[in-house]
């Protein structure tokens, strides 16, 4: 069973990202689970969501305390996110404008905000960084690009889906592993 | 069996989809976190025409259940849902539904009780309704929520007793997972239309739940008690026939995991019992012969099935997500001890309360707790 935790700020789309990843697992022929933590919801407050993928039934219903992957929606949260818990062999995926490495953990970086702005993906809360991050996480987890595309187009058929897919596909191709 | 559909659904959506599949007639509703998602989904289905039912928004939970009682007495198949203090506010009318022998099905999305306020899960709310004359299921997965609502309607309508289907707030209600929806034809085969023996009908005026003298009241109460006990074989039959119709199985009165040769038995309900399967695997990996016994049915407490399932000399570790105020532990442990007394003197019971107000219960934490309970049992400090 693969476990992943998303650490972000309220309004950045962490819940939708978790849902997309769980849906992608199902499209990929596996079991998927998205379990956001709902606190007292406020924009800008730290939020987290658990995601699990497994070829067999998922019985866990706790938050991911020691995940295999930590997805950090903002470089401002990197230290706090890693301090919250990650397994010893864990990997960190960061949305950051420039390359940054996390001590002791393999790190992948993508500038999701730049991709979202370039694709003109905005909501009331700002650029939709969760869409490019979905593409980047699919790449890191080796989820095929056609599964990523299928997941997006099933959720948003038509033009919105195509724009989201463009941004996710770009992130899929440019997310980069940083040598720590 | 026809082809089933697999979608991603939260536990709340699974409940709403089961309501649709059950062809419910009337749904009175009032919002409360974390149950609100069920009522939102059901109201949406009624509005879009996907569900041909009457949705009745009222001003509070006491009225919700009063409307449910009235609709059920008029012969409708009735569903509603609530959580925590909403369920407590219904308490008086819960008795009216069971005493009136009305087969309402209610989802309680478990949440800790005020005061102080909490939004997150523990099991104080449903366990506090133990003596209301309702049958109670507790579910450990999204799929089981869907399956159990259908089974609950069937059992409730067979014996005219209302049924509460409980599952954890957030860790099930807001957890997105794959959900298998059987073909409607298979569900209809399992759950035929509701045909009450009696109903309120303006064309044939009658009244019900009148004042009774003790000579009438006492037999009514005895009948309710007897019929609740008689639900066990019906619950088993419903689980088996649901499996025949859909291929799915969550256990009947209980679910067990690696129990046959277990020396240490974890006993718990709801989503923590699903995660406990992983704790059992961890303990097995450490050389401890662990197993799981999950009561799926809380009322009636499945005494015979638990007594039969427990291996010889089992050390039972009860993990309670509630308090049994006035006693040192939780309510499940007290229920278990009461059925073991005089029947299984070889079994020992230890008990810890955990996970109150949504404290996260991970597989590693629960495995460590069970290890500590074993050490305590063996006098190792």
Task: Please give a quick description of this structure.
Chain A is of the alpha/beta class. Chain A has six helices and nine strands.
Task: Tag the structure with descriptive keywords.
heterodimer; A: 180 residues; alpha/beta; Pyruvate-ferredoxin Oxidoreductase, domain 3; seven-stranded mixed β-sheet; two-stranded antiparallel ribbon; 6 helices; 36% helix; 24% strand; globular; B: 381 residues; Rossmann fold; 2 domains; five-stranded mixed β-sheet; 42% helix; 18% strand
Which stretches of chain A are poorly predicted, pLDDT < 50 over at least 5 residues? Answer: none
How many structural domains of chain B? 2
Total DSSP helices of chain B: 14
Ends apart, CA distance between termini of chain A: 26 Å
pLDDT averaged over residues of chain B: 97
Helix content of chain A: 25-40%
Strand content of chain A: 15-25%
Assembly type? heterodimer
Structural class of chain A: alpha/beta
Q: Give me the CATH fold name of chain A.
A: Pyruvate-ferredoxin Oxidoreductase, domain 3
Count of the domains of chain A: 1
**CATH topology-level name of the largest domain in chain B:** Rossmann fold
Q: How would you describe what is shown here?
A:
The complex is a heterodimer of chains A (180) and B (381). Chain A is α/β, with parallel strands linked by helices and 180 residues long. Chain A is built from six helices and nine strands, in the order βαβββαββαββαααβ. In chain A, the strands form two sheets. A seven-stranded mixed β-sheet of chain A has the order 2-3-1-4-5-6-9. A two-stranded antiparallel ribbon of chain A has the order 7-8. The radius of gyration of chain A is 15 Å and the shape is globular. Chain A starts with a strand and ends with a strand. With 381 residues, chain B is an alpha/beta fold. Chain B folds into two domains: 242 residues, Rossmann fold (3-Layer(aba) Sandwich); 122 residues, Rossmann fold (3-Layer(aba) Sandwich), CATH 3.40.50. Chain B has a five-stranded mixed β-sheet with strand order 4-5-7-6-12, with helices on both faces. Chain B is globular. At the A-B interface, α1 and β2 of A face α11 of B.
